[in-house]
Write a structure and sequence with these properties.
Largest sheet: 4 strands, mixed
Radius of gyration: 52 Å
CATH architecture of the largest domain: Orthogonal Bundle
CATH class of the largest domain: Mainly Alpha
Number of domains: 5
Strand order of the largest sheet: 2-1-4-3
Number of strands: 20
Helix content: 10-25%
Structural class: alpha+beta
Shape: elongated
Distance between the termini: 195 Å
Number of helices: 8
CATH topology of the largest domain: Lysozyme
Order of helices and strands: HHEEHEEEEHEEEEHEEEEEEEEHEEHH
Amino acid sequence: MQPDSTARRTPTSGKRRHRKSFPLLALNLAIVLVVAGGTAAYGALSHTVTLTVDGKSDKIRTFGDTVSDVLASKHITLRADDRLSKAKSDSISDGDTIAVSYAKPVTLAVDGTVTEHTVYDRTVGDAFDTLGVEPRSGSYLSAKKSSVIPRKGAQLVVSSSKSLTVIADHKKKTVTSNAPTVAAVLKQADVTLDSDDEVKPGKDAYVTPDDKLRVVRIKKVTKTETVPVSFKTTVRQDPDASVGEKNVVQPGKKGKAREKVTLIYADGKLRERVVLVSRSLAEPRPQIEEHGTATTPPDSVWDKIAKCESGGNWSINTGNGYYGGLQFSAATWHSVGGTGLPSDHSREEQIKRAKILQARSGWGQWGCAHARFD
């Protein structure tokens, strides 16, 4: 019987499948060594640091050597007022902490008092602590304390409950409100506003304790009216007439115009009349007057008589029934065309009337007529 050749080959074939060649083993060993060396090199060349930006912390691994390298790797740009816990040029080591605090402009309004600040806090509550703000229970806050303040800054409003006076529609009432602005208080007080209405202080103004809020109702009415037009007065000098003497050569006459106007009423009272369009119906006629310019020399006979009669006081009125520098009685003064009382008129007007009286009745009208010869 012949031996089974297939059976003899089978064991030989199985041994060959489990045999590994030396070159393959060497390659695997090399790969292991490279990976291990790379990991060791990565650990030796990198640093693990804690980076805190605006109050939020992260652990990061970096190949940078300085604080500036770390910031650049995270694309962090600092502005002039921002704060950095280490200098940019400082070297870093494993376990270091780098803190970046952003400068944030904050407008703070507390019960109507507005102030400007720069804070480095992350949240509204932290900013309140920094600024010493302690909102009372029930106060209005423009943002929750947990809200994050953006880098560009914020406007923070705190308004506690306060007593306020509202005056509108000729009525006055007292309201208690924590609303921060005038407009908000008026809304709570059920006071509605038209676009033309005026509010003092302004609608957007912050309210302060014990404020008085006044609403002025504005009404505008447009209509067409026929109105008089005033005349102008032209004055010409008359050298032959005394100073103070006036002669109306041509009396003035008012004209007429048709005007489209807007009448503006404030709480029912006319405040302003605005002319939109005006068309003349009749032109006014100007008044022409002649005013005297002639003066009597200061050392005239009349000044001498006046000095004797009244001490030269042309406006004297002692209550004795005689008036002015030349001591006219009211009746005599009126008889020569004078108006009012002599003491109310100029020296020139009194001398003018005296000349009329002297021409009519002579020098005997004055007890001091002799003074004219002094």
